[in-house]
C-alpha cells in the first residue's frame, strides 16, 4: 500500500470498511517523515487481519491508542523492517498477539534511529516467550549496516522451548566471546529447526569452534535441520569452506551471504512482484537502491548493484 499524508487517519476513522482486510504492506512516508507504530493499532483489532509488513516505522508515538489487552489480535505475521522501535513498543505489540507465527524485526537501515532508543534484548526475549508454541519463523537483525552500529547489549538466551522452523539472528544475540554462550549451540537452539541463519559473523575463533562442534556432534538432536545460512561482516572464506565441507558430509546445505542487505533487497523485490505492485513502483525502488549504492560505497554495494541490475531485467 502506497502511503498518503492522512492514510492512517482515514483508515482509523472508518474501520468498518476494512473488516475483511487480511494483510497490509506499508513502505514508509514519501516525504521521509517517520511512521508511528500507534497508527497501526486499529489493524490489530480487525477480526480478519492476519499480516502486517511495515517498513521505516519509528517513533512509538500514540502507544496509548493500542489499549492493549493481552492476546486480542489474531495476527499471524508481523514484519517491521528497517525500523527504529525500542523494546517498550515491541512489548506492547507482541502482548496483543495470540496466534503469532512469523515475527521479523530489522533495526535501522533506511529509518533513522534516535540515539536514545531503549532496546534490551532480554526484554524482547521475554515478550517473545509467550509465543514459543506458535512461532515458526523468527528473524531479528539489530545491526544497522548504514551506521555500522548495533543495539544488541545482551544475548537472547535459550530458545530450546520454541517450535521454530526458521531462525535468523545476529551472532551477538546468541552470545559473545566474553559470555561464551556460543560454546554449545545444542543447548540454546530448538530441535524443530529446519534452517538456521546467523548474521554478522567475523573471524573470532570461538564462533567457528561452536559451529564446527555443532555440526560434528550436535545434529542428532536436530532431525529436521536442512540448511545453515551464514552472513559475514569480514571476509572469512577459508573458514567457511572448511565448514561447508563438514556440513556436506552431514547432509546439511550451507549458504554464504556476505551481504546482509543483499538478501533483504531480493526479498523486497519479490514481495513487490508477487503483490502485483506497479512496474513503475518497482523501477523506482531499483533506481533508489542503485543511487544509494553510489552515495554509500559500503563493502556490499557492488554486489547489491549487480543483483539489482539482474532483477531489473524482469521489469
TrEMBL record:
Superkingdom, taxonomy of origin: Eukaryota
Domain Leucine-rich repeat: 43-223
InterPro entries: LRR_15
Name of the protein described by the UniProt record: Leucine-rich repeat domain-containing protein
Organism: Rhizodiscina lignyota
Amino acid at each position: 500500500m502506497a502511503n498518503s499524508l492522512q492514510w492512517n487517519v482515514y483508515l482509523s476513522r472508518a474501520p468498518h470498511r476494512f473488516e475483511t482486510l487480511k494483510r497490509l504492506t506499508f513502505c514508509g512516508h514519501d516525504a521521509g517523515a517517520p511512521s508511528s507504530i500507534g497508527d497501526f493499532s486499529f489493524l490489530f483489532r480487525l477480526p480478519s487481519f492476519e499480516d502486517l509488513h511495515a517498513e521505516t516505522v519509528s517513533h512509538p508515538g500514540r502507544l496509548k491508542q493500542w489499549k492493549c489487552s493481552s492476546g486480542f489480535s489474531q495476527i499471524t505475521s508481523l514484519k517491521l523492517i528497517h525500523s527504529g522501535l525500542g523494546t517498550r513498543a515491541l512489548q506492547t505489540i507482541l502482548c496483543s498477539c495470540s496466534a503469532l507465527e512469523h515475527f521479523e524485526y530489522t533495526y535501522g537501515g533506511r529509518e533513522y534511529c534516535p540515539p536514545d532508543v531503549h532496546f534490551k534484548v532480554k526484554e524482547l526475549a521475554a515478550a517473545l516467550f509467550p509465543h514459543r508454541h506458535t512461532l515458526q519463523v523468527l528473524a531479528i537483525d539489530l545491526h544497522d549496516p548504514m551506521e555500522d552500529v548495533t543495539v544488541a547489549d545482551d544475548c537472547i538466551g535459550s530458545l530450546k522451548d520454541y517450535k521454530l522452523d526458521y531462525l535468523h539472528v545476529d551472532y551477538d544475540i546468541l552470545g559473545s566471546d566474553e559470555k561464551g554462550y556460543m560454546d554449545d549451540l545444542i543447548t540454546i537452539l530448538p530441535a524443530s529447526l529446519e534452517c538456521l541463519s546467523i548474521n554478522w559473523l567475523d573471524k573470532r575463533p570461538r564462533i567457528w569452534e561452536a559451529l564446527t562442534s555443532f555440526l560434528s556432534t550436535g545434529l542428532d538432536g536436530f532431525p529436521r535441520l536442512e540448511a545453515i545460512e551464514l552472513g559475514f561482516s569480514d571476509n572469512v572464506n577459508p573458514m567457511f569452506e572448511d565448514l561447508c565441507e563438514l556440513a556436506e558430509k552431514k547432509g546439511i546445505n550451507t549458504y554464504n551471504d556476505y551481504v546482509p542487505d543483499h538478501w533483504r533487497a531480493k526479498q523486497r523485490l519479490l514481495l513487490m512482484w508477487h503483490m502485483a505492485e506497479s512496474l513503475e513502483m518497482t523501477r523506482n525502488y531499483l533506481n533508489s537502491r542503485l543511487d544509494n549504492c553510489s552515495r554509500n560505497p559500503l563493502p556490499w554495494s557492488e554486489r547489491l548493484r549487480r543483483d539489482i541490475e539482474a532483477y531489473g531485467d524482469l521489469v
